Amino acid sequence: MEILSLQLAINSISVSPDAKLLICGGREILKIFKLENKITEDRSLRIGKPNLNYSTQDLAWHPRQSNYILSAAKNSCIVLWNLDKSGPNKLDLIFKGHSKVVNRVKWQHTNYDVFVSAGQDGMIKLWDKRVADQVILNLQGNAEGARDVSFSPFKENLIAASFDNGQVQIWDLKMPNPLCKIGAHKRNALSIDWHPNYADLLASAGSDKNIKVWNAQSSELVCKVQAPEPVAKVSWVPHENNQIASASHTLDNNLYIWHLNEPSLPHFVYRGHAHPIKDFLWVGDSIITCSEDGNLIRNPRENAYRPHKYLAKHSLAVSPLNVLATYSDSQTPSNPDELLSQADRSLIHHTSKMKIYDLGDYKTEIENLASSYQLKGKNVEQLCKENAAVSRKKAPIWNSVEHLFKSSYSVDYPWINTIILNALQETIDYYSEIGDVQTAACLSAVFNYRGPVREYGDLLRQLNLHHEATKLDIPQPNVEIFLRCKCGKISEDQPCSKCKDISNCAVCNLPVKGLYSWCQGCCHGGHLMHLKNWFSRETLCPAGCGHQCSFENF
Amino acid sequence: MDTEGSISTIKALFIRDPEAREAEFKSFLSMCQALIHSSSDINQHLFRTKYEKTIIRLAVECPLLDIKQASDEFLRINRIAYDPSFVETVSAYIPASEIKPLSGEADFRSDREKSLYMTINQELFFTLGRVTHLDRIMGAFPDYMQKHCEVIKEVLFESGPLQFDWRIYIAYMASAAHKCDYLMSTCEEQGKLYGGKASWFSPQGLSEIPAKIKELSTANLKLAHRPWEFDENDIHALLGNWQISELCHALVILCVFHSLSSIVLGLGICPEYDLVKQNRRASISDDLEEDEDDYDRIAGGYLTYTHYDISAHRRPVRPSDFNWNDQGFNIIEKYLPGIAEKLMNRIRYTFVMTFDTIGGEEGINTANLRRAIWMYTQRVYGLEYDDYDYSNVNEQIKRQTKTYIKEVACAPHRVTRRHIELIDMKLIAEDIIHVNFLICEARLETELIYTTNAVQAFI
């Protein structure tokens, strides 16, 4: 990697047709360098007093005639430099015509005298390099700023241009109106590049962080890549058919190379600049980049950070619906061991590297047990016996727990009693730990120990087993008097202005205006006085859901 | 004690349902009635100081007819006299005939604009309990008004890194930097309405302001008066206690309210009838010096505009290289996406807004004049574009107009009616409002450019 520090911000670079010379231009610098083993300075084109005509936004070296260079100046002029001119000042002609800064200039590759320019005033202008005063052709883009323009490498009269309103327009120079206008990007379309080998492919990039490849004939989107930050310059990588390079103008100082087959992660990342990269090009086996930080960096192509090297080779994920996906990068076929051969039965999908397994629907299991478990009403041993019978193979714990409990009675030493009872609590905690909420909660309900009963209730409700959920004995905090609607908005008037809900009293069935109290367990409620009266006699919920709304402390 | 009308207690103003609102307002008026007829002096005083002015204001400046009529009726019954034209004086420099009325027939360029105007007024009333004089002035350009309201809503009321009461206080500080009483009083009311501490807005309450907010003083003053001096060192100092996203939010609020002060003072917007504070000067008083100190203490210090000296800067900000559209916008968008979008909409719209009229004549392309005003305002703050020929400025804008523009942009509290009278260009009232919008927006863009340029090193 070779870094040449020029101390002054560089906006654009361009290489001579024989690839031996490089010109760098910026606001205060316009120099030509020799590209040998090391990059050395050849000469500076800025002679005499500083002049805004010399400050460059874009450079274009003539593709055939190596003495001509175009620079688009920041003051809206275009300057033609002729290196063969006699005398120290190589400035040949100044082309004035744009009313705002010129963003891009490009030479035509078949007609040696013609070049095109795109300006922030929204105009695309075609010029003849021999004639300074007049424009050959004006293309009115009808948008605020034209950012980039490019001749098609295959069709002589075809031009593509990108604009600040996000459009990419394709023009045939012989016709007065654009052939098509592609709404390519959400905000500015900052850069375009024709594919060097396929006649109709065009890449475009913009402020919305997207790089898109279009078929210019049909205006269809071929593919899309999302870059990390807004992309200011995009270019097809030479000698590769499906690689694109992109650089950003803010917040990101790297150059990314994307493979269109795997657009989610860049293949190569060239680092090293302290400010965003303004321009880049390839010379032979190296890539040269320039930036606002004043540095010119020449990197061999392979000298890049490859994100794929640092990705995990194998990974595993489980979805909330109990589906397992595994990914393995290894090429050798793995030998299935015991576990995997069991798993293969549940394999529902696979590609060469990824496998997807269905781990079974846990819902039916939980449902069956939830409806058949008995949690109260009889003595503990009886409950354990019944639950053991119901669960059979699934939760043999019931049998063990029953014996444990029985044995706690038949021992005379109280300290053994304590150990056994602690063991029970530990069992419940163990099931909580491993995530078997159902067993833990049912155990704790039967033995009246601390356990995840509330969470079990939530789980049942998630599975729409509300009936089972209400059977649980979840201690509710006091029925609170809410001055809020159920949706949470503090409001004293009905209907609630946020959720427009009018609730009916569960006792008298009329709409409740004013104080509405409701049970958090089963969500039924009503007039405060009615509920108070009801619960002075009854314990179950007046709505008939079977929930035991606890009404103590009232 | 709370001497101004506290509209938060008048719940009726915020109820959208007409029947419920009518009932609620009626009960409010009967409470006032009881206060008036009560024998106790305290009650009478309470009515006079807290509610009387608000009812008068509602009788004159309310877009909802039911409230307006009920208030009017109440005042008539109780024989409370008032001068409607005084209450409704929106601007000292723009004649009342040019201000669009709140209800009744209003003259617009199209029906779409008219219905937009009505809708926005209603929304404003339901959110803030009033249609401010500033909004009335903006009614001349309903599309601009809409974009402006979106910016204010997004910056002050939508979800974001900063808590609401801090945001309004920062807006208050920003308005104090230009001694803009009007904005300070509306911020104060909104602050109290949305749960801020009333003590923060009283002169004695300065000690209660959290130290973290006070750290913004340098930023406030520099951005208001000398934005070119605001650089990475200031940001670095602030990042000690502030997180970058909160800081961006705070700085955006400062920028928006600085430029809003330019409009308010440049157009001579008069205080809201029920918000004039007894202890603040409503008219010229001898305590000029004391009041100046007050503003300075709230804003956090003292600084004024000086002429931009380019030789004094090592690395000036060049808008051709670093501008709002390309770089600034992306930087703000990273942390405040909603705000960035609304700001972009408003700035872009203001730049292109035109109805092709000037001085009462139609069909004139005002693009050059508008661009000249924009470029000149930004140049005054040190931003020079490479691709603009600045001799155009002198061609398009004559000397006295230039003076007006510069005063509005840099020292808006010094703008007087005389400045407007002296403008040497044929401009009708609507044009003057348009010019002010251009200056304000150009200024906002300038401050945003300097802010984002300083922040970009820390992203």
UniProtKB/TrEMBL annotation, chain A:
Q: What is this protein called?
A: WDR59/RTC1-like RING zinc finger domain-containing protein
Q: Where is the WDR59/RTC1-like RING zinc finger domain?
A: 503-551
The alphabetized UniProt keywords are: Metal-binding, Repeat, WD repeat, Zinc, Zinc-finger
Listed PANTHER family? GATOR COMPLEX PROTEIN WDR24
* A Gene Ontology BP annotation from the UniProt entry: positive regulation of macroautophagy
One Gene Ontology molecular-function label: zinc ion binding
According to its UniProt entry, this protein's organism is Blepharisma stoltei
The UniProt entry, under Pfam families, shows:
WD40, zf-RING_16
- WD repeat start and end residues: 95-128, 139-174, 182-224
Listed under GO cellular component are: cytosol; GATOR2 complex; vacuolar membrane
From TrEMBL, chain B:
Taxonomically, the superkingdom here is: Eukaryota
Q: Which UniProt keywords apply?
A: Cytoplasm
Give the matching InterPro entries. Answer: AhpD-like (IPR029032), Sestrin (IPR006730)
Where is this protein localized, as stated in its record? Cytoplasm
Principal location listed in the UniProt entry: cytoplasm
A GO CC term?
nucleus
- Annotated Gene Ontology MF terms? L-leucine binding; oxidoreductase activity, acting on peroxide as acceptor
Per the record, the GO terms for biological process are: cellular response to L-leucine; cellular response to leucine starvation; negative regulation of TORC1 signaling; positive regulation of macroautophagy; regulation of response to reactive oxygen species
Q: Which PANTHER family match?
A: P53 REGULATED PA26 NUCLEAR PROTEIN SESTRIN, SESTRIN HOMOLOG
Family as reported in the entry's similarity comment: Belongs to the sestrin family.
Name the chain's protein: Uncharacterized protein
Question: What is the scientific name of the source organism?
Answer: Blepharisma stoltei
